Amino acid sequence: MTPFTPVLELRDVRKTYRLPRGQKLKAVDGISLRVMPGEMLGLVGESGCGKSTLGRCMLRLDDVSSGQVLFEGRDITTLSERKLRPLRPGMQMVFQNSTAALNPRRRVGDLLAEPLRVHPGPDGRRRTAATITARLHELMALVGLPASALARYPHAFSGGQRQRINIARALALSPRLVVADEPVSALDVSVQAQIVNLFADLRARLGLTYVFVAHDLAVVRQISTRVAVMYLGAIVECGETDAVLHAPAHPYTAALTAAVPRPVVGAAPAMLLRGDVPSPVNRPAGCRFHTRCPQAQVRCGVEEPLLRAIRPGHEVACHYPLGGEHRKV
Amino acid sequence: MPADPMPLLDVRNLCVSVPANGGMIRLVENVSFCVDEAEIVGLVGESGSGKSVTAMALMGLIDSPGVQVRGSARFRGQELVGMAPRALRALRGRDIAMIFQDPMTAFTPVYTIGWQIDEQIRAHERLSRRAARARTVQLLAEMGVPDPARTAQRYPHQLSGGLRQRAMIAMALSCNPTLLIADEPTTALDVTVQAQILELLRGLRHSHGSSVLLITHDMGVVAQTCARTLVLYSGRMAESGPTATLFARPAHPYTAALLDSIPPLYGPRPHRLPAIAGLPPTPRERPAGCAFGPRCAHVHATCLPAPPALASIGPGQQAACVLPAEGTPLPPRATAQATQP
Description:
Strand order of the largest sheet of chain A: 6-7-8-3-9-10-12-11
CATH topology of the largest domain in chain B: Rossmann fold
Helix content of chain B: 25-40%
CATH class of the largest domain in chain B: Alpha Beta
Radius of gyration of chain A: 21 Å
Largest sheet of chain B: 8 strands, mixed
Radius of gyration of chain B: 21 Å
Shape of chain B: globular
Distance between the termini of chain A: 47 Å
Distance between the termini of chain B: 34 Å
Strand content of chain A: 15-25%
Structural class of chain B: alpha/beta
Number of strands of chain B: 12
Number of domains of chain B: 2
Largest interface: A-B, 46 and 53 residues
Order of helices and strands of chain B: EEEHEEHEHHHHHEHEHEEHHEE
Oligomer: heterodimer
Number of strands of chain A: 12
Strand order of the largest sheet of chain B: 6-7-8-3-9-10-12-11
Number of helices of chain B: 11
Largest sheet of chain A: 8 strands, mixed
Structural class of chain A: alpha/beta
């Protein structure tokens, strides 16, 4: 593996769920992307856009329906569980619901030790009890919890502390890739800031590569180098964080950023997008956003726009991207 | 505008205590505020700060055994605390209505939403079923529900989150309440739908002349919606005042720290977010002095013996902090967030 091999690569990944009466729910509808070493990719979108499903597919917690998932250049799409297991330590997940992710009947020390017991150490042999204990103390220090936390049960901690425990567990096996699904959205602002800082610190110290699945654009901006915006199962815009959030090319991204209630009195009122996200079961033909798009034209209802680069590193799936030569309003 | 001699809602020293371990624990301590006619007031705080308990106490919806509600809450001069259940029931829904965070659990799943809105109208007014349904459909239409007559015939689970919340607001407004208490009405919604609902709430002042007490944890929602804001911390008032003043010149270190810990969407990106260390105390272990003291960067000896009293800072602004009185008020906030795109 060279520094130019993506840590994670998705090639036309699709995830379709079969519903009764022959209907199909296309949760992920043809997504290709690359995550380079050290990158922090923010995956944003509204509920039901498929961002969590995509996050799970990245780590093969869910099997994809078609397409390829490559981890560090290796195709893991169809690897058996047994062959996948040695790769698991390299890729870990942090879940949104910190309470549900921790077994309430086991002490924090046991919860964190489990991955260390299941997976062999770097020398290929089982870790000894002493190595495990040492690692547990290291992990607690890493996420800012006292060592005494190891002897306690999850219920004894606050939401923010539980999320620290989840992060510690994800880091136990020194992964290269961490996928975090809404890791701070259940937390209060003051605590959320602590966890956001923790992610930044951990990246600096451990050289991690992150994928953040989140709906809060301000949080995503704080922790991502690149952002991919999803709508109804597809990426509609992708590029450097501030390029996408401050000069959005896709009308959906523009509507999304405008709708964020900013903590500024007298800030421009949000641009209103009408209606709700259509059902992914029968998504609109043509551009998937055209039913709500304030700029939609006839062509948008017929021909599906493909993701294309409008400048280096900034891709958009729109026939008439904002700020382009097509529209000078 | 001359100040109304009697505000629509006047809450003074509201306290809510629950029994625990043989004693009483104060969930809400001495909360005072008022809501004027056609005004939107924000009640902000983190989880456990007592904002929902305050609202439930106002509505007389706390009926757990042993719970004590003390203090005074006057709605148009009528005392709500200790009001007879019958009188309160006549008021609730007609003059004061409430909307909740999760419209899925606030509606019963076994009746259509039209049926449920009709029921509320007919509970307060003598109307035929047909007339009630006509009002329901009209209300749903006013709330921006597409195809209102058909939507009224649907069950809560058949509607999207945004539509359910609109139906809930329609139900709350069905008897033209003068005061609407909205408890985290947009928290469960996506931002584009949230923007629509906030627009709706802002419009109620003009379309229905309603006042809104908006409970939220989101400072962004407050900034865009509320004329005045009340900040709660651990069941006590930290600060209150006109929203613009509070954001520009917060007088309580908690308000300032809370605003600073929000990551900015525009402007320079801080290397680290100024997070508030630690956690809010639970009501049980609330310190004797200022509840924010253990997390405050400015804490000193005078903060410790007793909670600082609410002191007037400027026009309409009050803060429960000793700093202004000691001549060392907080500096105005650097408005990095104000940078427009």
